[in-house]
Amino acid sequence: MNERATDDEDDQxxxxxxPEDLPPxxxxxxxxxxxxxxxxxxxxxxxxxxxxxxxxxxxxxxSFISLEDMR
Length: 71
Prior knowledge:
This protein is mainly β and about 70 residues long. The chain has one domain (about 15-70). About 10% of the residues lie in helices and about 20% in strands. The chain has a three-stranded antiparallel β-sheet with strand order 1-2-3, with no helix packed on it. Strand 1 and strand 2 (about 40-45) form a beta hairpin. The two termini are about 40 Å apart. It comes from Haloarcula nitratireducens. This is DUF7511 domain-containing protein. InterPro entries: DUF7511.
């Protein structure tokens, strides 16, 4: 047995997660224009406008699909 598992569930120690253990938190923004294809940008919520333009992913309409289409 290790420190995270016991025979009795009531006696289990809480699992302590560090920031490295947690999945990254990302936001997505879709920009729709009448004259251009829609664009979806994925970025961390605290990214600056400059970082969103230079560091994170932006995909044009046609290269991404809705979550409902994945089912």
